[in-house]
Amino acid sequence: MRLKGFLYPHFENRTTEHRFILDNNLKAARQARSGFFFGSFGYAMMSIVVYFLLPEYFERSWRFIYFFIIPTHMIAAVFISRFGSFFYLQWLLVFSNIFSSLCTFWLIHLFDDAEYYHYAYGLLTCILIYAFAMLRLRTFFSLFASVLIFAEFLTYALYIRPMPMSSLIFSLAFMGFVNMGGFVSVFYFERNARTEFWQSRTIEEQSQLLAKEKKKSEALLLNVLPESVANRLLAGERTIADYFDSVTVLFADIVGFTSLARRLDAASLVQMLNRVFSHFDNLASVLGLEKIKTIGDAYMVAAGLPQEIDDHAKRCFEMAQGMLRILDDTNKDLTEPLRLRIGIATGPVVAGVIGQNKFIYDLWGDTVNTASRMESSGLPNEIHITETTRTALGDSAEYVSRGEIEIKGIGKMQTYLVKGGAMNA
After folding, report:
1. Torsion angle in degrees (nearest 10) through CA of 90, 96, 101, 106
2. Residue closest to 28 by CA, chosen among 86, 70, 110, 98
3. Checking CA distances to 57, which of 30, 146, 309, 355 falls within 20 to 30 Å?
4. Tens digits of per-residue pLDDT, 349-372?
5. pLDDT per residue over 376-410, tens digit each?
6. CB–CB of 111/119 below 8 Å?
């Protein structure tokens, strides 16, 4: 923050200065409203005191106080809040203070000489204090108003209604002291108000920046984790592990990818994989499946979690069919066609997020291992499934039994190749 100017301090940045003025004017309007009400109350109390102490003066002044000063101040109190967004509110408050001082000069003009010598400076001192304390005028404007009132009194006391020199000197000294004290207080008040405004603006901007960064981090988290799981992490959970009785897990792998990687440059290879896997991602999203991860050319997806669904096996089967169609379309642009090996298994799993860094939603259990083995022991462009998946699919597909085959790490299993349309190469 950099402030320029002494009598008229302001921010170097014009936008910041503009916002401060509007913010300060809103507060000034509210404070001035209270000030006008207080002024009306003050005049009413003063007239009561005058009624008992100076009954003759009360008789000369009460009509002006009750039928002009108090009504005008009450009207100002009612309407000033409507000018909170008025950019030049400070000048309006200055003129209202000058108006109050002119009313006071008229009251002074009604004094007898003895009263004038003893009480005039007191009434004007109240107006000075009003300018410094009640109207929330900024440094320049409060100084302008107070100096003008001071000059009015000096002119009145010298040329319009001369005052004895001793009374004049005392009055000027007293008012000058009040003027100086008021100016110093307003000067530091505005400095502190500007500092507070700058700090609040800085905090506001930092809060907005933090909110944006939080949204980015939350969006990133939602991009790699299911929404329900991400919300639990954001709520404070650190280890999430949920058991699911029945889900279907799909593994897919591009056949011959290693040899293909040797022939293609890195950029072309990544571009091709990104195109294929992006289509897979879109399909998974349409079918309501949860993409778990990709490892190299391997793609893993599951159905039935984190929200349980009844037709998870059917959705995974439709996903497998769609993946084969996607690869078939991709092959139209390749000189050497790609082939996909797909394995599916159905059963219980544990799903969750572990660790503190680089969160990933992962699955554990025999079902996951079996689905991986279905893929690795399957055939190119075929969908290889377990007995449990066949049972879950029911009559929604055609099956070709492979009999009992040896599955690495598991043993002999009854498996099937599932058919759902023209999808074989």
Report:
1. 160
2. 86
3. 146
4. 999 887 667 778 889 999 999 999
5. 999 999 999 999 999 999 888 889 999 888 888 88
6. yes
- State the Cα–Cα distance between residues 107 and 109, nearest whole angstrom: 5
Indicate the CATH number for domain 227-419.
Answer: 3.30.70.1230
In angstroms, rounded to a whole number, what is the distance separating the alpha carbons of residues 382 and 324? 9
| Residue 166, token pair as written in the block | 């001793």
Is 188 buried (19+), middle (13-18) or exposed (0-12) by CB count in 10 A?
A: exposed
Cβ atoms of residues 11 and 17 within 8 Å: yes
With a cut of 70, list the residues of the chain below it in pLDDT: 1, 355-356, 420-425
Closest CA to 367 of 391, 343, 399, 341: 343
Length of the chain: 425
Question: Quick one: which of 246, 243, 251, 253 has its CA closest to 364?
Answer: 243
pLDDT of residue 420: 62
Task: Report the alpha-carbon distance of residue 377 to residue 31 in Å, rounded.
Answer: 82
Strands 10-11 and 362-364: unpaired
Provide the pairing of β-strand 290-295 with 3-4: unpaired
